[in-house]
Amino acid sequence: MISQKLLLISASSLLTVGAIIGVMGQKATTTAANSSILATTPVMLVEEDGQEAVFLEIPSQKQKNQLSDLLEQNPQLTEERNVQRRVYKTKVIGFNKLQKKQLSKAFIHHEVKFKDEATAEEHTLDLLSYESGKGRKFVAEPGSGTPDLIPNPNDPSQKVFVKNNGFYILDTKTLQVRAIGDQQARNASLLKRKALPSDSFILHWALRPIWLSDGRTIAFISNREDIEPGSDNRGQVSVWIHDIATGQEYKVNESNTSAPRTVGWTSDGRILIVEHDLKQRGTTLAVIDPKTKQKQELASGNFVAQSDDGQTVLYSKQIVPDSSAVELYALSISTGRSQLLYKSSAVEFLNSHRADFSADGTRIVTDLIDSQGTQNLFIYNLQTKEAKRLTLPPGKTTSTDVKWVGNELVVPIQSLNLQNLTSETLLMSVQ
Q1: What are the b/e assignments for 295-327, b being 16+ CB within 10 Å?
Q2: Interval 52-70: pLDDT, tens
Q3: Residue 68 buriedness (CB in 10 A; 0-12 / 13-18 / 19+)
Q4: What is the pTM of this model?
Q5: Which residues contact 66 (CB under 8 A, 6 or more apart)?
Q6: Separation CA 88–CA 67 (nearest Å)
Q7: DSSP-based three-state secondary structure for 193
Q8: What helix, strand, coil percent values describe the chain, rounded to 5?
Q9: Dist. CA 251–CA 236, nearest whole Å
Q10: d(CA 333, CA 354)
C-alpha cells in the first residue's frame, strides 16, 4: 500500500501555473496546482468506474534499460518466457476519487494458450485480473508482449486483438480464444506471401481493429487483396468491415493514391479514418459510411484524439509544409465546424501530438515544449474557450500519455538525466 505520507507530499512547488493569452483572444485564469504523488512509477489508466479509478504500473525507461542490459549480458535469457518479470514489478492500484485515497489491489496472473489455425503456431496471452465494482476485469500484463485487448463496448468480456496479422476474440468469462474471419483465405495469402521475394511485400491481413458502438461490427485495414504476382497495387491498404454475427468481411474503401488508417467511429455509425496522400504527403480526416461505402472528407490534418461520445475530434494541421509548427483544432462531427485551440509559435510547439478528453468532452489536455526544452501541459475548455498551462519541473518530461480522471490529471513524468531516469506519477487537480 502506498503510504498516506507519500500521498501528502506536495508537488506544487515543482509545478507552476502561468497566465497566457488564449488563441481566441481570451486571457486564461491563473489557479494553484494542487498536486500529490500518485505513484513512484509510471502508470496507465485501465478503468474508471464511478468513484474508483484503477491504474496499472508499467515499465519505466530505467527498467527497460535494465532489461536490455540483462539480456545483453545473458543472451540465453531471450528464450525465457516472461523474462521481463526479472525486472518489472507490476502493481494494480485502486484510487478513490472522492476520498483521494489509493491502495494496491490484489490481482491474479493468467496464461491463456491458443493456436493459430493458419500457421499451427502456439501462442500465449499473459493476463492480469482484479476485482472491480462490475466484477472481475482482465488486462494485458505490462511488458509481456501480449497485444492490446480492445473490449467490445456492449460486452467488455469480449476483447478483440491482433496476433501475427490474425484476428481473435478473447472471452474473459471462459478464458477461451477464437479466431474470427476467413482462416482458409488467410492461410492461402500466407502461402502466396512465402512465394514472393522476402522484401517485396509485407502482408497486413488485419490491423488496427476498431469496434462500432453497437458491438456487432469491427472496422480494420488490410492489404490482403494485393498480393498477386504482378499486381500494380502491391501493398495497397484498404478499409474493411468484419460482421461478428455472420463472420463476413468486406471492403468499404480503397484508393490508389492514399493509405488509410482507422482511428475511430462517429456516434452516427461511420468509420473515422486518416488518409495519407502518397503523392502530396498530406493527411486528411474523413468518415466512411459502412453501408453505402460513401466517403466524406472532414478536414485537412492529422488525427490527435476523439472524445468518448465520438462527437468531437482533435486534429493538427501544419502551418508550413514539412515543419513542426502546427495548429490544433477541435472538429464537431455534427456541424462540421472547426475551432482553433492552439497555434505553434517561433519558440513553442506541440510535443507528443497526443491528447485526452475529459469524460464530459468539454476539456482537453495535451503537452507543449519550448525552445529551451521545457515541457508544459496545455489545458483548454471547449465551452468557455479558456486555456491554461502547467509547467513541468525543470529536467522532467512526460513518460506516457497524460489522462483525465474526473477533475484530476494523471501525469507520469521521468527525469531527462540519462544517468538517473527517476520516474513518478503526479495527480494534479484542475479547477
Answers
A1: beebbebbbbbbbeebbbbbbbbbeeeeeeebb
A2: 999 999 999 999 999 999 9
A3: exposed
A4: 0.86
A5: 87
A6: 9
A7: helix
A8: 10, 50, 40
A9: 12
A10: 19
